[in-house]
């Protein structure tokens, strides 16, 4: 399935907008057991052999901690009363989330822009791609394999959020919409393992759409989208001053033994993807 299905027409803008929404190539997010939906679209021609480019925050001379394998954000670790983690191929659900994992919302990620306030355990939320809670003991999390997993915490530790941001969610403004719902305050954010711009080649029309909406910096080389850079920009525009990039490229980052560190939709992982999430301690 190609992304480059957009064609010129007299009302090009409207066509583009509609086609982008219906292109069916949105990334990520299947919770295990949810209906199969496409993630970031596989491309027939891959750029997989190129070295991974630096993300916006310069994330990528990356190695996971050898002892635990746990990927965490030093920035989020400064927030009181929170536990968080980014999953990997070896640990799809970060162990730190296991004590509260059964309490997570019952969700289905659909590459939309809906954010949901989580107020009870195992809350049924339906289709949504961003989740936030001020209730201790309930994890908010997202599942990704190439899309951007984004974890946020208010600096006082009293409110946390998780956002699934693939190209479609970013294009449609999920980060801004989530931040608006969070209602201000001093927030910090960690942008987790996601496909790098070098690995993420898309169709020319889609790339053009991103250039037109967000400027050339988001497409650093021809037809390659920098999702991390766009996520960072949208966080900054939403007033999040403290942002950290963690983890590597889900598509090309490898462990010392040569195995891939993350699940990657574009590399072929469909029904087994990593989770990223966080929760507030009960004693908060
Ligand atoms: Zn890469």
TrEMBL record:
Alphabetized UniProt keyword annotations: Metal-binding, Transferase, Zinc
Catalytic activity: S-methyl-5'-thioadenosine + phosphate = 5-(methylsulfanyl)-alpha-D-ribose 1-phosphate + adenine; adenosine + H2O + H(+) = inosine + NH4(+); adenosine + phosphate = alpha-D-ribose 1-phosphate + adenine; inosine + phosphate = alpha-D-ribose 1-phosphate + hypoxanthine
Region named Disordered: 1-65
Keyword set includes Transferase: yes
Key word Metal-binding present: yes
Superkingdom to which the source organism belongs: Bacteria
InterPro entries: Cu_polyphenol_OxRdtase, Cu_polyphenol_OxRdtase_sf, Cytotoxic_necrot_fac-like_cat
Pfam families the UniProt entry points to: Cu-oxidase_4
Similarity comment text for this entry: Belongs to the purine nucleoside phosphorylase YfiH/LACC1 family.
Protein name per Swiss-Prot or TrEMBL: Laccase domain-containing protein
Species of origin: Pseudoduganella plicata
């Amino acid at each position: 399935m190609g992304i480059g299905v957009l064609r010129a027409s007299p009302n090009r803008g409207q066509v583009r907008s509609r086609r982008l929404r219906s292109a069916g190539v949105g990334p990520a997010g299947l919770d295990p057991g949810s209906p199969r939906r496409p993630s970031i679209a596989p491309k027939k021609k891959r750029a997989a052999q190129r070295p991974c480019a630096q993300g916006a925050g310069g994330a990528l001379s990356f190695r996971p901690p050898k002892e635990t394998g746990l990927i965490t954000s030093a920035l989020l670790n400064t927030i009181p009363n929170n536990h968080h983690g980014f999953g990997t191929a070896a640990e799809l659900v970060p162990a730190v989330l296991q004590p509260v994992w059964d309490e997570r919302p019952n969700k289905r990620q659909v590459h939309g822009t809906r954010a949901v306030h989580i107020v009870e355990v195992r809350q049924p939320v339906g289709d949504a791609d961003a989740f936030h809670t001020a209730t201790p003991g309930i994890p908010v999390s997202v599942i990704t394999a190439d899309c951007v997993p984004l974890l946020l915490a208010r600096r006082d530790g009293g409110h946390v959020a998780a956002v699934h941001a693939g190209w479609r969610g970013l294009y449609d403004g999920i980060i801004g919409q989530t931040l608006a719902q969070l209602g201000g305050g001093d927030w910090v954010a960690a942008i987790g393992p996601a496909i790098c711009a070098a690995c993420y080649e898309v169709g020319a029309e889609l790339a053009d759409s991103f250039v037109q909406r967000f400027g050339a910096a988001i497409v650093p080389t021809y037809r390659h989208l920098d999702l991390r850079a766009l996520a960072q920009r949208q966080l900054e525009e939403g007033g999040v001053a403290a942002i950290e990039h963690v983890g590597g490229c889900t598509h090309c980052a490898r462990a010392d033994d040569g195995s891939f560190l993350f699940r990657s939709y574009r590399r072929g992982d469909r029904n087994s993807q990593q989770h990223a999430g966080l929760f507030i301690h009960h004693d908060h």
